[in-house]
Amino acid sequence: MDLSQSPSEQSFRAEVRAWIEKNLPEGWGTPAFKDPRTFEERVAFSKEWEAKLAKDGWVGIHWPKEYGGRGATYMEQIIFHEEMARARAPQLFINFVGTNLAGPTIMAHGSEEQKQRYLPPILSMEEVWCQGFSEPNAGSDLANVQTRAEDRGDHFVVNGQKIWTSFAHVADWCLLLCRTDTSVAKHKGLSYLLVDMKLPGIDPRPLKQITGDAEFNEVFFTDCVVPKEYLLGEMNMGWTYANTTLSHERGPAFLGHQIRFRNVLLDLFKAAQNTKRDGIPVSEHPVFRQKLAGAYAELEIMRYIGLRNITSILKHGRPGTEGSVAKLYWSHMVRRMQELALSVGGPAGALDGEDAMGRGQWQRGYLMSFAQTIAAGSSEIQKNIISERVLGMPRGETWAPREKR
Amino acid sequence: MDFDFSPEQYTLRDEARRFLEQQCPTSHVREFIDDPAGWSRDLWKQMADLGWMGLAFPESVGGLGQSFLDLVLLLGELGRAVAPVPFLSSVAQAGQVILRHGSGDQQARLLPGIASGERVATLAVAEGAGTYGDAGIETRADADGRLTGEKRYVLDAPAADLFVVAARGPAGVGWYVVEDGASVTTQRSYDITRPIGSLTLDGTPAERLAVPGLDPGLRIATAALTAEMVGTASKILDLSVSYAKEREQFGRPIGSFQAIKHKCAEMLTDLESSRSAAFYACWAVATDAEDVDLAVAVAKSYGSDALARLGGEGVQVHGGIAFTWEHDMHLYLKRIKTAEALFGDAAEHRERIAVLAGL
Q: Which end of chain B lies in a sparser environment, N or C, as judged by fewer CB atoms within 10 Å?
């Protein structure tokens, strides 16, 4: 065991830290700074911030140099995310799909023309991407995608509906997983298109979320004519390519996330110290004190889990057993932490927005925490994966309607 | 960055598992459960021959000169086997306390017997207050080092001939070694695989260990316990998963039902998160890391809750069969529930975390 950092890692950390200090938006982190709350405000803010990152080469640092990245090592990526989190710098928002999902997928499976066409505007922030995977009937069961792309010789005609598509209403391009062959097993008949969101027949409709914001969308495709050149790789290989995309949903940002959650918890500690219950600060109330300390312990453990995962990736190129349990662990950890946050306020938890403790950040945080246990593989799917692939337990019997049983 | 054990450390783990599966099946463990002071001297002798007792002691006292980290996986294996031997208390706890707190002379006198397995040592910390820290220590040491007080929950007390006692002397709380004259009362241990006793000290002669304070010794002892707990819990999970794959109801293995599969997945999550915490705590005590106090409190508070929960779910997955005396599950369950309570339970360590986190 050796948890020390190499000299080159230390100097990379110093470089990142210096850039952040110099470039954080003015007033950021001070009470005077009115941070963006609505989706529109956040888009405008993140476009400006991410363009600044892009200009100095801090977007897509994990991309190879030949595609404009820095070719950063795995440890450098981790350090980058850690430092951004430590400085409470804004998280990658509008360009997340482009740099983390679209870029690596196109690099892995795209033609040379496609790489030349699509990759540079991602890094330069000129084009925003969205991910058209989920559908009303293809969530946990993603291979059940029903959106059809009919092959009409020199073009496809796309019909169907996507859902939970973040940024679709502000995106220029879409990673579209759709069905091109209905005669084969469901995961064998999918193809992967790169679709221009300005094409006629695409209708993104913002979906108002549980928080009241509209960050994601339903996207309707009606007789949308998509040129053949938008096909990624080969026909009916979409499932393989989709898995490339999904494998990039989680990665070196793990420890950065841990630090961001830690920032949230430390804010909660302050709130607990400044809120009284029966005349004493909530932080000194034995029951809350135990719960707050318990949350701190769980958060520390997320870091230790991260260290084990990183070690496994550095040694074996993939996370070990720990990788599959990590998401289940931290997503529920966040849920518990946000539940605790609301309870710290006591009856003040009944208020929202400007009237609430922390301008409603705890109310919003609580609702947003459900995303963690639902998105990117719900907890129930994670538990199936863990029990079947890690513990080797038998797959469940396929359900059939009563008359067929 | 390398947060993992070395190939050699894994080799030792594998060898230990093979050895214990052969020499310490639960049929052997059960030979001692009707005798509250009983422990396996045969197994102890074989372990000594393998050199395990001396592993983490310096060569100057007859050890092999390895680090505390070399004990971690071994402790896990002994926990898996619920081995009825005082390895944790003598080697990983009392021995490490003497190593960290004893003067060169004290180490030279006290450690060779522990490192060879000829002597059995144990820690005596808790008292009526039931806590494991300075505040809970009322046993007094007078200016001559004579101890007076009552020590409770002393692991392997009936087996021990050397007690390392936490006591309050003229210069504050520290460790004292009692070789003769302590009155040991064997108590009925909830963990029927590990004897427990209390200690009455009444002007009992003792020698103060040179380095004052309970830490780093107490931290190391606590981290060692978490390493053992993870091993016991891993056995509970393994047994539960294999049982769920074999046991059929409604014409299919119960392990194909999501109610059972998901429970097992949660057990693995509890195990792996506790394991990460225990390993980190052990790394922190071995290297005197900056955050060592926090790391140990995190590992013991979280592990106490999560692993005891895992133990309970292990019984539940088995159903009625685990409710019988014949089935081994209760051996593991009682080990983990007892470990939960000792060396600071979850609540005690969480209060420590609260202080360390600035609450």
A: N
| Complex ipTM | 0.96
Tell me which residue in B1, B265, B347 faces A314 most closely, judged by beta carbons: B1
H-helix or E-strand containing B202? strand B196-204
Residues of chain B with C-beta less than 8 angstroms from the C-beta of A382: 265
H or E segment at B149?
Answer: strand B147-155
Q: Between chains, do A314 and B301 touch, taking CB under 8 Å as contact?
A: no
CA dist B74 and A209 (Å) reads 51
Interface residue A273 vs chain B (CB under 8 A): yes
A40-55 as b/e, with b when 16 or more CB fall inside 10 Å?
eebbebbbebbebbbe
Instruction: For residue A343, count CB atoms less than 10 angstroms from its CB and return exposed for 0-12, middle for 13-18, buried for 19 or more.
Output: middle
Contacts of B295 in chain A (CB under 8 A): 300
Taking CA B351 as the corner, what is the angle to CA B347 and CA B352, rounded to the nearest 5 degrees? 120
Selected residues 287-346 of chain A with any CB under 8 Å from a CB in chain B: 289-290, 292-294, 296-298, 300-301, 304-305, 307-308, 310-312, 314-315, 321-322, 325, 328-329
Q: What is the pLDDT of residues B284-305, one digit of tens each?
A: 999 999 999 999 999 999 999 9
CA distance linking residue A2 with residue B69, whole number of Å: 12
Q: What is the mean pLDDT of residues A147-174?
A: 95
b/e burial code for range A352-381 (CB count within 10 A of at least 16 → b): eeeebbbebbbbbbbbbbebbbeeebebeb
- C-beta of residue B13 within 8 angstroms of C-beta of residue B77: yes
Mean pLDDT score, A50-63: 91
Query: Where on the phi/psi map is residue A164: left (φ > 0), alpha (ψ -120 to 50), or beta?
Result: left
Q: Number of Cβ pairs closer than 8 Å across A and B?
A: 161
Note whether A1 contacts B294, CB cutoff 8 Å: no
Amino acid letter, A264: V
Predicted confidence (pLDDT) at residue A37 exceeds the cutoff of 80: no
Residue B259 buriedness (CB in 10 A; 0-12 / 13-18 / 19+): exposed
Nearest CA in chain B to A304: B276
